[in-house]
Amino acid sequence: MSKLLEFVTGQQDALLRDLEQLVNMDTPTGSKQLVDQAIQVVVARFQELIGGRAQWIPQEKYGDQVKLQYGEGTGQILLVTHIDTVWPEGETAKRPFRKEGQRLYGPGIFDMKCGLLQGLYAMHAVISQSAPAKNIVLFINTDEEVGSPSSRRWIEEEAVKSDAVFVLEPALGASGKLKTSRKGVGRFALEIEGVSAHSGINHNEGVNALEELAHQILYLQGLTDYGKGSTVNVGIAAGGTAVNVVSGQARAELDLRIESMEEAERLSDLILNASPVLKHTKLNVRGGIVRPPMEQVMSRDLFASAQAIASELGFSLEETSTGGASDGNFTAALNIPTLDGLGAVGHGAHALDEYVELDSIALRCALLAHLIQQQVKPSN
User: SUPFAM superfamilies this protein is in (predicted)?
Assistant: First the structure.
């Protein structure tokens, strides 16, 4: 058994106590007070275990973000995690942390409170062995579940100072695959102006914005190209004021997923420059790419290292791509080597039955610790 695996195995009971406490704290993204309370608990535990530096980044709308740091030197390794969840206040009272067999359940345990603590204990393990030659930063995001609107700036600021980024989002599938590429995300809104008229008296003088919307939906959905990994989804559509009125207005919102920036630019241009089909209608399209794609090239070397470490630890490791986005999209787009999915193994992100596999926690924590150690040990 490696020294790091031996260390985290010995710390597992403490990690599980911390996990139970953290899972039983509601942390909905929209409640600054609740998220701040949970952040305080994590920071206090960091000080007890490691005693490094905590740098607060105050926020008005969301919970205060924090950078937990240890080490010196010119280089830096960045661990990215988030504490906010999709679950509302009161959810933990309904479904508190519980253990059933070898599975641990509770709101946000899989996405991603277990991964957060694995990052904390991986830092603890590395520092217990020797002083790192680089700075290790654990960044705790408080608004990831709504797209990281306030945290993106700070994540990118830390990423450009880093030699590698490890994202502690949950692994994918029962085998715990790492995510070496993620699709980028675009969000767009479409507003249509038609010509209102009475549907019974002067129907022929109207131009129905809903009819134009139907044309646009078919056009936009038709931009999907599974061969290129590109999807367009019109998820919200509405319009009209009354059943006896030729609708003078309509609107839609759509989601774009793409695998490369080249495809992001191509499809964004087509969406933003959509033309009306019906005469006397006007289109107003706004939006753009909110998360750039995380392309596989930025994960290649880190994944090879992780695969070799996993083999030494006695398990196999595979890679995968996913249509979901994370903060790793931001860091990879800055050309910083980024490896994602290093958090918990389990299932059910955003689902009532989300769980973590108990017997995977120490192994995944040790995997992360070895990756960190590999990056921060002094060069010969």
Answer: Bacterial exopeptidase dimerisation domain, Zn-dependent exopeptidases
